[in-house]
Amino acid sequence: MTNGLDEKGKCHIFVDDMNQGQKDIFRVRVISVGFITLALAVFKPFGLDAWHWQAYMHLLNIFVLGVAVCMLTDIVMKYIVKMPCNMEDIHNIPSLSEMMENDADMEVRSYSEDINYFIRRNLYFQIVNTVLESLMICLYRHFMLSSRVEGNQLSWNNFFETLLIIAFCSFAIGLYWRFKFRSKYLAAELEDTKMLNMRLKRKSETSDTLHTPTEQHLNEIVLSGTTNESVTLQITNLLYIEAVGNYVKVYHLRDGKVQNDMLRATSKQMEDDLRQYPMIVRCHRAFLVNLGQVEQIVSHSGTMQLIIKHSHESIPVSRSKMSQIKDVIKNMY
Q1: Local structure of residue 142 (DSSP, 8 states)
Q2: 3-class SS at 60?
Q3: Residue 209: what pLDDT?
Q4: For residue 22, what is the DSSP state?
Q5: What separation in angstroms does the CA of 133 have from each of 35, 126, 159?
């Protein structure tokens, strides 16, 4: 019964998020079209000044039709271009306190991927919408404005003139929204990084008390390369492995001190040998890292680095590996 209520509550939350997302989409479209309409009111192209006070009635009509065209463009983007708008994800990013309250069920999302998707979709939306808005205004000029201004008759020259004006306005408003949403995402990425660091801290506090001498003996591994050389260590003491040409450097703790041993092997071979340990992951083409030995995650402008305990070295994370790193940290508990 409780599970049913929980599922029902989640459904209500999901519906509320979707409704909020749709409202945000509409608000963005209205503001964008309002900006273009204001520009037309100031500069009065298309012979609008010949209509005197009636020009403002025409501008109101253009505004309403412009919002409708934006909604049509969203439909085109969703069903034809196959790029639905995830505005509910943008505007309903939980705060750090909400993350902590729902820590067990919270999924770590890749905000850098969301940023790239949103920017790419926004670019495609602007291209499609600019063409449709220009066509709509050309038709309006032909049927509603040409009675006083003959130059408003439908023609290719009028279409390209309108396209140039709308493209300039669309570019200006696009820069505004791009800056606003990117700033919002970067702030959310900072919240995301704080949550990940809290998980790492909790994992570090618990792992220090869980390893008995018997467990340590069971966790002992031997890493070897193509020669007779090998490295014996506790898996929990492995910090990271760096690929250097035809060799790898194994950084690990021995008697509380950081030590590195070189083996003639590839990082792919090391990755295969350590595949049974989920905390050992590839974060970069040149690095394998033990997430249990990560002291802190540093994230900035869509990039990520891992600060290693004891050595305090900074290890880069490839963009393609960010989601995997976050998923592993999410599943620590």
Answers
A1: I
A2: helix
A3: 47
A4: H
A5: 13, 10, 10
